[in-house]
Model the fold of this input.
Amino acid sequence: MQRAFLLSSLGITLALGACASSAQANTQITWWHAMGGALGDKVDQIATDFNASQENYTVKPVFKGNYSETMTSAIAAFRAGEGPDIVQIYEVGTATMMGAKGAIVPVYQLMASADVDFDPEGYLPAVTGYYTDPDGNMLSLPFNSSTPVTYYNRERLEQAGVEEIPRTWQALGEALQKIVDSGAASCGLTTTWPSWVMLENYSAINDVPFASQANGFEGTDARLRFNRTAVVDHIERLTQWQDDGRFAYGGRFDDAAPKFYSGDCALMMGSSASYANIKENVDFDFGVAPLPYDADVVEQANNSIIGGASLWVLDGLDETHQQGVAEFFEYLSSPEVQADWHQYSGYLPITQAAADLTREQGFYADHPGTDVAIKQITIGEPTENSKGLRLGNMVQIRDVINGELEEIFSGDVGGQEGLDEAASRGNALLEKFESAHQ
Amino acid sequence: MSAPFQRHRLTPWILMAPQLGIVLVFFFWPALQAIEQAFYVEDAFGLSREFAGFANFQAVLSDKAYYQALGTTLIFSLAVALGAMSIALLLAVMADRVIRGARIYRTLLVWPYAVAPAVAGVLWLFLFDPTLGLISGLLGNIGIGWDHKLNGVQALALVIMASVWKQMSYNFVFFLAALQALPKSLLEAAAIDRAGPWRRFWTITFPLLSPTAFFLLVMNSVYAFFETFGTIDTVTSGGPGGATTTLVYKVYQDGFVGQDMGASAAQSVLLMALVGGLTWFQFRYLERKVQY
Done:
């Protein structure tokens, strides 16, 4: 059956090839990505639109599973010499990709050797900071970046008599107390992606180091520092809140979201890209607020840092393919495409032009709260502590941190003790990465 | 009986060839690669590769998390093997007595085996989800707070339940077949000698089931060690705090998620040795107690 199909399609191809030999050859560019569901449909649409916009190249998006599956398949395929042209890699895989010098083509080189318009200055610094080398060269193209924000259930807040989401953790504690005491909700606050929100972004917003060497930007000899900063007090605060109902741990990744959907928790901290999902899943009125800062640590909030993924170009492409990828990247970064992607998905617009276009189109006015993320990430010049993280083995480090957080929140170990353990286990992973990349 | 085969030396090999081919390609080849990889430190893309001697093994064996996973695996495997076998035996004995509608009962009891491990995991996850689950809600009503996302003991209990439920059917089929093959004359003779059902079971039925039970013990151990991966991945992803990270799950986490091939390969080799040793032990010591 399959063989018959192959033979017949071969025949058709030959026939078509014979009569179309005068037309210019069309180059196919494969793009492996991890965007399932509605986001995957959008990715397909972007590719279709690009294909229709010119005739030299055909971009073929292939869904390869979740982020770690996509990365694993791309690496395995590269090792077998059959890698895709473009692959979407999540931000915690960045250091691994950067370490693989012979396996990738840096985007700035690709764009320079191809003849396309490319202005790195047009990108949001908090986004590109994550994906540039120490000399400021862009290594991968940011595609879908998000940052955590606070979602709140307006009805529960009204019941509790809380007017707005406070800007500091201290005031938030009082507000959550009101919510729990008034019986408006059985739980005040929950969070998705615990390490990302409560350690990584907490550190950035409050300008404390998550790791040494400027969070790894200045060298692979970086070591974790969060067990020596205000993060410890913050985690201890959350543990205390866990006991009195102001906070409820809801699991890793997006596992905590149902606690917010069901109305059990009045607030949830989570990715700005969860907006569409929340809208679909709740039947109450909800709002979006920035993440709070810690009044005991800083006087005003720093920018938050991003999560999400960027597009990497794997090495081994001939010139035509490289040119095609460059032209596709140019198309992908255009304000129209970016603004559409941003409005559809809740991911950040990666260029200033796309953000401006979205504002001009009146999207932020029509959908209040959708601009919280972009405001939060562009709040000021990123500092050494808020440029992002560049740590090897970050996927496992997050696992270690989440595991220790679970032990802390369940009361098995103290906050300091648990974070010390997380840091020392994480540092072992960093040492390993350092020795493998010398 | 054996004479025809002695004359055809080649025939048995030809007949076995497809199976041997599969074993060679899908077992021996990757196993050898794993052994080789365990002695190298390599970056994810395979661009640089350095001989590391026993460094990978040293790192694994000095990692506290590895021993935690080993402990979890032992508890998990023991609970799954014993749980799945004893429940299956109970159900088989009961199904063996049923006369009306026997086929319906048997079909229903065999059904869970057709469910993929990941799907079995998701089914149990729905029942026990701390926020939305049916059973966790009922437990909450009677004052038991169920939160397997924070409580390691509950998480382990949940993956054990899901794994037992899934494997039970397999054991059930074998036990039922064995029960139906028992010589009725022995049981009748015992009954005539006024041995009660309880005594008949423990002195006649159970010893006669021992070859089946031994076979199932080996199969269940292997199942608990390797095939429960899908269940664990969908239900707990090894958490909370590594409470449900078994050895095979750790191999996956370090190798496929963390891209640390050397450490992952070293763990696979250790796991291979462990399961090989366990199977050898089972055949060497437990098999002696089996009455064929």
The two ends of chain B are 21 Å apart (CA to CA). Chain B is about 75% helix and 0% strand. The longest helix of chain B spans residues 64-97.
